[in-house]
Amino acid sequence: MLELLWIVPALPFLGFLILALIGSRMPGKTAAAIGVASIGLSALLTVFIGINFISSPPAGRVYIQTLWEWFNVAGLNPGIALRLDAVSLTFIFVITFVGFLIHLYSVEYMEGEEGYSRFFAYMNLFVGSMLMLVLGDNLVLLYLGWEGVGLCSYLLIGFWYKDPANGYAARKAFIVTRVGDTAMAIGLFILFTELGSLNIGRLLEVAPLNWPVGSSMPVLAAALLLGGAVGKSAQLPLQTWLPDAMAGPTPVSALIHAATMVTAGVYLIARMHVIFTLAPVVLTIVGVIGALTLLLAGFSALTQHDIKRVLAYSTISQIGYMFLALGVGAWSAAVFHFMIHAFFKALLFLGAGVVILALHHEQNMFKMGGVRKMIPVTFWTFLIGSASLAALPLVTGGFYSKDLILFYAFDGERANRWLYAAGLLGALITALYTTRMVLLTFFGEAKTHLHHKPTWIMEMPLVVLAVLSTFGGFVELPHTLGHLTLFSDFMQTILPGNQVAEGGISTELILQLTAAVTAILGIFIAYMLYYKNPERVTALRRSAFGSRLHAFWKKGWGFDWLYDTLFVNPIVWIAEVNKSDFIDLIYTFIAWVNRMFNRAFSFTQSGRLRWYAMGIALGAIITLTIAVFL
Amino acid sequence: MTSADLYYLMPLIIIAGASVVMLLVIGFYRDHTVTFILSILGLAGAFISLAYIRGLPREIGALVIVDSYALFYWGLITLASLAVAILSYGYFSKMEEEKEEYYVLLLTATLGSLVLVVSRNFVSFFMGLEILSVSLYALVAYLPERKRSVEAGIKYLVLAAASSAFLLFGMALVYAESGTMDFLKLGAHLNSGAVNTPLILAGFALMVIAVGFKLALAPFHMWTPDVYEGAPAPVTAFVATVSKGGMFALWFRFFTEVNGYRFNSLMILFTVIAIASMFIGNFLALLQNNVKRILAYSSIAHLGYLLIAFLAGGRMGLEAGTFYLVAYFITTLGTFGIVTVLSFKERDADSLDDYRALYWRRPLLATAFTAMLMSLAGIPLTAGFVGKFYLAAAGVNTALWLPVIILVINSAISVYYYLKIVVVMYRSPEEEVVAGMPVMTVSPALSVGGGIVLSVLTIMLVWFGTFPGGIIDFIKIMISGISSTAITMVP
Questions:
Q1: Quick check: pTM over 0.90?
Q2: Scanning every residue of chain B, which has its alpha carbon at the shortest distance from the alpha carbon of A597?
Q3: Is residue A520 located within the same domain as residue A374?
Q4: Number of domains, chain A
Q5: Residue A421 to residues A101, A162, A260, A319, A504: CA-CA distances in angstroms?
């Protein structure tokens, strides 16, 4: 069974190839069927492989499938191999399964759009690249997938390329993440020159033997890898691209910019955890970045009008939680939160998509309202997803995953009270903006009429995801509630565990109560502020300080402005000044030299036989001279 | 020579026999398809017979040596001829000329190339070369209705004859000094030390002229674009592959056998030739708009690259060179094959305009052509990349820094004109019409055989680029069977 692993990424790639080559000539239904079926089969296969892997685990709990050795010349033999273990299995499960649901949903959502088959081609390429990223056995393959998903993200953000704003958003996403990618590439070079390999298994073995804890090399390498991770995962200071990435179609936002790709940074750090443990400073920075990001993005989410931007900021914020978890060494908690987050965030985006489509591409929440009766399935599933995001106690998956992170932040071996406090404050804000979003969108007066009523194709994924985001949390229950550790046991076959330093059941119970109260408090405050007496909020926003703060938060803490001033404008200025590019002269000179040579040699190609014969005679003289006299 | 020896010469006998049979059949019953099938049977039979040759190496008389190295090149050459023959069928079906003799000439030319591969004596060397050349004169000028074809034939005849004269004179000088025409004995003589070096070197240098001419290396390259352009497209494919492959195999054997590597001046000579070929080929291709001429110039450059393997010498050089030649055969047959299948009755599809927006008319053909051009440019996942990498590795291992650096520079230059063709193929017809460019709306129907050959070549191209392990191992085994006393097998 495990030998079939290669088919999992191969199917999406095959789908992509078919769609890219002949997709535009086939009817839309066929294109969609190919797109959906390839991912669906992949997902099905992943489930079988997963069952097989768990029921009869391979030796060492890692399964390596060597596909082929590309070539073996002069000592260089880059191999192509896949690595399946607890971490990558979880990731491929989420990628293929959530990917499949979103593909299915897109069949209806994208119906009638120009470039229907192109959409599925890109989406398939994305899923394939993402699978490559998480299954790659060496960092080169991982990097290949990493760049592949970056490319797909670019292509899909700019999917409606006729609007220049979308093109701008796509370029922004590409360029900003590129900053991180460059750092990561340099990190890979360092790992290769210092440790002599980029094979993941080998790196994790060799690194602790060669590098003492806290020495400069692992710090440098880990910091550079972190650079790549913050870029891809939209964390401080490279978070600015994600809100703009919402320019793409909503299923894209659901799949790429919420559920899967943006968590690649989390995957990278979890994968390279040994390097990060060797660099405790960097690990602390990871936690701090996570805490800061989750707060900043949370505040920004609170002020957005566009429902997709709320969700975008909430994604940044939730990934902040995962980084926080990584920072405190709660590796499996990070992966757990990744999984639950993927479920409920995909659900929320898809639900938002239904609303947007229902209201004729309206994304402003203040123009929505009262749609809960028109699209009941969407409303209830959206509510479940929101509850999970707000971490409503006991009944949602989000509660268990977030609680685990907070628990380790408070009580784990790398516990840090500041990070815990930030996480708790973040939980309050999360509950606030989530409730605000639900109230504005679904409650109150209906402001527009229904434009498109979703069919089962769009509703089925919502229901499945709602089930998953609720019951997905029950694979890992805290000591106080049933004490089930299926997930962390599974993760700890690969990732190190986290010893709880002190306390006991009572500490844990207090922590849980705090978290639960915080979430409920947040929901209550939001209810009071945005539903009962919205005048108070309006008044607050009208006040001088309030309006300024609101604008500041709404613009994402002015990071765009800062980067524009620091980087973009100076570069644009230089480009303006240097319109007739003097550096280009070097290249035009090279081109000119080439053309000159071309002209000179063309002169010899006269087409005259006597000239050619003379050429041979001249060649003979030269040949003889060199051979005999040199 | 015993009757058992004949068994080792089976491929030669089958091909020679087939051409005689074909001549007889043509005498009584002139039919394109029948002649074509006979030629296919001959070539395929020759190829199959290779599988039954055992007990290598085998010396036959003083002239011929059959070893597994020769066997590999025999296989390569017969397969290439087979591909050319199949491509020719579709191509000549459109023509009104008498087509039947074409296949006879194709077989005799192949025979010449096969003889070169097993030669170990000046006599068989010259004989093979002449069988090949004389057949080629007629092949190049096979379409008398086309002025350029005849012109190309005459040019080729005059220049090839001149180069043969140089070859004979060079052999004479070597013979005058050493008193032998046998490669083996010549090698032994050179080892003995009592050698009049200038005379030997002058002889070698004059032979290099003929070899350089056949391989289209600078400065003996000038005929290449004219002949490539003028000759019918399948003949061009033949000139570019079969005739060069046989010569390369022979020259590598000769040079290692007599250990020409000991002469520093010859090494300098080949370095100069390699560098000149790379630069001249690529520079000339740069602004060319005729696809056949582009490919002609590119082949000059590619043979320049190949010389790096030759300069490196030894086992690694031989492996790299052979692999590169295999990749070169595939891409060259593929590119000229595409030119062939797109050609019209009146003229070959050699203008860049014929490829404008090809992707929108013939997506699969355009994709295959793109793959071929990528391979020529040395883009990864194609055989061309692995070949170039192999060459560079062989060059670096023997510290041939200058040629390797020049190889890299030239690879960069060459990308320009390969991509130029690709870009033209993928422009949408509407844009081109708006831009005032001529856009073809019809293209000739693709023959079944041509389609099969091109698909096989494209698959091989990608296969050898992604899984080169198998073919490399095979080459290693076959090459290691080279029957040579002098070869310095560097592990």
A1: no
A2: B283
A3: yes
A4: 3
A5: 36, 46, 28, 17, 20
